[in-house]
Write a structure and sequence with these properties.
The protein is an alpha+beta fold. It contains eight helices and five strands. Helix 1 links the parallel strand 2 and strand 3. Helix 3 crosses helix 4. It is extended, with a radius of gyration of 41 Å.
Length: 271
């Protein structure tokens, strides 16, 4: 009996928001859970969500600085794991509150505190089930110019000043003004590594045409080549004919000479 393979649908960090999900202004942060500046920024974000209640939404992306903070990567994976049960923001705040206690066993305890019920949580953490999601955030951050944490974006535009309440609220207000003017920054889209399908198809068509043309050329040229080869063979045979005749004569003379030697030898023996 055939069994259907279970497809695991993973909720990506880019799709997890807090605040008004339909808000026109998005505050986005690239950060990690062992960073002190990120923990301070998290308190500022909480205040912004209160002050702009219903007008903005917030999205947290993972940018673990593993050379400085060795536990930040697994903490990010743990956060993504809790998002699968709708407990991301509970875990998010717990991790910042316990940023000096992020070992694997501690992460399991933090997940229980956040309300996660999955019995596979620890196994997923050990097997890096959600490692690709954290690495994907990290790569996207690098592509978008993130070098340190925390780095904020408002509607896709990087906030260049320090991540203070004043700077972030100023960026949010600018985003509202831009919306009134009709100026909208296009959201980030990762550049695909693979070439476009249209280009691949065009290349295949071009190759197919080249092969077809070469076959047609061969068909057209082949009879001419065959005629030329036959003509050349006849010419060689004509030139070689006397030589072949001479070789045959020489061979016959040699055979006759050998026969005469044998007969002379036999006569002497009889005598």
């Amino acid at each position: 009996m055939a069994f259907k393979k279970e497809i695991l649908v993973i909720i990506e960090p880019r799709d997890v928001f807090v605040g008004n999900p339909k808000a026109e202004v998005t505050l986005e942060e690239f950060g990690e859970y062992e960073s002190e500046p990120c923990a301070k920024a998290n308190e500022i974000v909480k205040q912004l969500l209160q002050d702009y209640d219903g007008r903005i939404r917030f999205n947290f992306r993972h940018f673990p600085l593993t050379k400085i903070h060795q536990r930040s990567l697994k903490a990010g994976e743990a956060a993504v794991a809790t998002a699968q049960e709708g407990k991301f923001w509970e875990m998010h705040n717990i991790l910042f509150a316990n940023r000096r206690n992020l070992g694997t066993t501690s992460l399991k305890l933090h997940s229980k505190e956040a309300g996660v019920k999955s019995k596979k949580f620890l196994d997923d953490l050990v097997n890096a089930t959600f490692g690709w999601q954290v690495q994907g955030d990290l790569k996207e951050g690098i592509d978008r110019g993130v070098k340190d944490v925390p780095t904020f974006f408002v509607n896709g535009k990087m906030v260049t000043g320090k991540p203070t309440y004043e700077e972030l609220s100023k960026a949010i207000e600018t985003a509202f003004k831009d919306l009134k003017k009709g100026t909208v920054v296009k959201p980030y889209k990762p550049v695909p590594k693979e070439p476009k399908v249209e280009k691949v198809v065009a290349k295949v068509d071009k190759t197919a045409k080249a092969i077809k043309q070469s076959k047609e050329v061969k068909k057209a040229v082949a009879p001419k080549k065959a005629k030329a080869l036959v003509k050349a063979t006849k010419k060689v045979a004509k030139v070689a004919k006397p030589a072949v005749k001479a070789v045959k004569v020489a061979k016959s003379l040699k055979i006759e000479k050998t026969k005469s030697k044998k007969s002379t030898k036999s006569v002497k023996q009889r005598a």
